Amino acid sequence: MNTSDRLHVVVTGATGNVGTSLVRALEREPRVASVLGLSRRRPGLTLAKTEWAEVDLSLEGDEPRLAQYVADADAVVHLAWRFQPTHDPVATWRTNVLGSVRVFDAVAAARVPVLVAASSVGAYSPGPGNGAPVSESWPTHGWPGAAYTREKAYLERVLDTFERDHPQTRVVRLRPGFLFKEESASEQRRIFAGRWFPGQLFRPELLPLLPELHGLRFQVLHTDDAAEAYRLALLRDVRGAFNVAADPVVDAGTLAALFDARPVKVPNAAVRGVLAAAWRMRVAPASPGLFDAVLHLPVMATERARRELDWAPTRTSVEALEAFLRGAREGGGDATEPLAGRRFG
Fold it and tell me: What b/e string do you get for 282-303 counting C-beta neighbours within 10 Å, with b at 16 or more?
């Protein structure tokens, strides 16, 4: 392959959970000449093909810089996302929605040939009552009670308009389940359990009983397997949405086996009440609306990704969860500010 045929790829959110896995996957890809990783803070991560640049997508004043970074790209992978502060949905909207629109506008202005965007299972409307898996054609209106699902659903509409108005750009949307790896465990503990929740508590012997919630079923994928799906979506001549997740679907029985605990049925309303009180007191960072959204997630069918991307996960959902638990206990992390490894704090 000629050097001129190799791709110059821009990755937003390159220092996060998925971004760090993707840039490493692109490092190993011979068809990629270079990677420009964009983030709010420059990381201490050195990779042969990757350069880093700072940009804050939430700031209108950073638009010229963003346009400059995207101008010569052959492809843009948009991963940047902000989960907190959950008490200030305007702040997350500025980054997640307005920031995404800025990225899409820059891609359109530069006529970048390929845009791969991170969507989510959270973009989907609640699944059918019989629990059957849904394909990529299932409605993407999200769950209205959580900022995360509202924002993901809104961006699906933005991408619909983008595809209509800019057919010269090949647009791909990846809709993964929950993504875990050992190196992201400290960050995810801080985001969802709180920075003062000790990671050492994620031990099976400390959890003899496990709450069994009605309707709790969700899908998990190891982040490195998700990164492989992004790599394939970049390189293959495909368009549209792809569901990606690993088997088995996680439920109370799966979690009980993982923790070697006995499941105990607990009313959903009781758990939600405790979580809502903790959230209002700013003890728990995860909002009760997100709890509701998780209970309404559909199960995704992944046949299209397996067929058209020739993609398959190399780890089960249980192995991905085990990686997270191991990282949480041991303070797993990476050489970026978001993934800083800590057992506590």
Answer: eebbbbbbbbbbbbbbbbbbbe
Cα distance between residue 303 and residue 301, in whole Å: 6
Q: How many angstroms separate the most distant Cα atoms in the chain?
A: 62
Which two tokens mark 32? 């990629």
For the chain, how are helix, strand and coil distributed in percent, rounded to 5?
45, 20, 40
Respond yes or no on whether the N-terminal peptide bond of residue 248 is cis (omega within 30° of 0).
yes
Cα–Cα distance list, 138 to 123, 185, 216 (Å): 10, 31, 20
Q: C-alpha 146: how far from its chain's center?
A: 16
Tell me the pairing of strands 50-54 and 7-12. unpaired
pTM for this predicted structure: 0.95
Q: What is the pLDDT of residues 87-111, one digit of tens each?
A: 999 999 999 999 999 999 999 999 9
Residue 223: partners with Cβ closer than 8 Å, 6 or more residues away: 17, 18, 21, 179, 180, 181, 184, 320
Cis peptide before 85 (omega within 30 of 0): yes
